[in-house]
Specification:
Distance between the termini: 15 Å
Structural class: mainly alpha
Strand order of the largest sheet: 1-2-3
Number of helices: 13
Strand content: 5-15%
CATH superfamily of the largest domain: HUPs
Largest sheet: 3 strands, parallel
CATH architecture of the largest domain: 3-Layer(aba) Sandwich
CATH topology of the largest domain: Rossmann fold
Bound molecules: tryptophan
Number of strands: 5
Length: about 325
């Protein structure tokens, strides 16, 4: 049986946080151990340039993200783990796809439309201000990432759903003109429990500055968990578990029995200080072993690079023209 190809990219502009871990990294690492799939996971450093024109930050973020995935036990024998810019065929395909993509399709992209809407709010009212062609045609680069390897499934957050639909449209258009070259991908959205809240209770996101970095040293992790916003109920007052950031975060790390136990404590009026201590212990127990490996890996950037080069070699064995698919 032919293995299913599961592909996803990680934009290299930041340091991985607990929300990334629970929502994307942890499920992807688990999936990498499934022998019935070939996962393609890559560092989307060309995508990074759309939002961030600081090479040093992109470089540092690539290193941190690669170290994170390796420290967490990504199975690089099964998974193909590479850096987008090490596979030049992605950019070659981007142009071929650009020439079959209608401008009207790109006009409908949420990311582009949001940027235009924001510009129209300013007194200058210049709808094009600060919008590069990179931002405008971003979905074409993403389509090339996906179509190049004939990915079957693409796990992404809800915000990326439109991009997968565009990849299908673009792939279908290309197939219609030039013959059946590309598999049309399907998005895989993990609905349940994949979105973690940040320190202020909104979705954990770099743009809200409410994140808890995944491999923060133990003391800092504890400090940040202590900062998570709660209501002002006193110890001994019964508390609701729904909409409680502490509870929902605990749920992402604990088994069903542990969750039931903590829910009982809420009803009995657990104090927030105690709940924060419980949450810290739980999160720390899961991340501490990987944190040690992560710190060690960051001291050996050459080793990380070697892994990425091996991944690029495997990817290019498929992407280079004339090679078999
Ligand atoms: N644009 C995606 C994001 O910001 C990252 C990405 C780039 C991606 N290329 C991809 C995801 C291809 C899935 C498939 O999250």
């Amino acid at each position: 049986m032919k293995k299913a190809i599961v592909l996803t990219g990680i934009t290299t502009t930041g340091t991985p946080h607990l929300g990334n871990y629970v929502g994307a990294i942890r499920p992807a690492i688990r999936a990498s151990q499934d022998v019935n799939v070939t996962p393609f996971y890559f560092l989307a450093d060309y995508h990074a340039l759309i939002k961030c024109q600081e090479p040093e930050r992109v470089r540092q973020s690539s290193l941190e993200i690669a170290a994170t995935w390796l420290a967490l036990g990504l199975d690089t024998n099964n998974a193909i783990f590479y850096r987008q810019s090490d596979v030049p065929e992605i950019l070659e395909l981007t142009w071929l796809l650009t020439c079959v993509t209608s401008k009207g399709l790109m006009n409908r992209s949420h990311a582009y439309k949001a940027a235009v809407a924001e510009n129209e709010q300013t007194p200058e009212n210049d709808s094009d201000k600060g919008i590069t062609m990179g931002l405008f045609s971003y979905p074409i680069l993403m389509a090339a990432d996906i179509l190049l390897f004939n990915a079957n499934k693409v796990p992404v957050g809800k915000d990326q759903l439109q991009h997968i639909e565009m990849a299908r449209d673009i792939g279908a258009r290309f197939n219609h003109i030039y013959g059946e070259h590309f598999t049309l991908p399907e998005a895989v959205i993990d609905e349940q429990g994949s979105i973690l809240a940040g320190l202020d209770g909104r979705k954990m996101s770099k743009s809200y500055q409410n994140t808890i970095p995944l491999f923060e040293p133990e003391k800092k992790l504890k400090k940040l968990i202590n900062k998570i916003k709660t209501n002002s109920l006193e110890p001994h007052e019964p508390k609701e578990t729904s909409d409680c950031t502490l509870f929902n975060t605990f749920k992402a790390f604990a088994n069903a029995d542990e969750v039931a136990e903590v829910a009982k404590r809420y009803a009995q009026g657990i104090g927030w200080g105690e709940m924060k201590a419980i949450l810290f212990e739980k999160v720390n127990a899961e991340v501490a072993p990987a944190r040690e490996r992560y710190d060690a890996l960051l001291q050996q950037p050459a080793h990380i690079e070697e892994q990425l080069q091996q991944g690029a070699k495997k990817a290019r064995a498929i992407s280079q023209p004339g090679r078999s698919r």
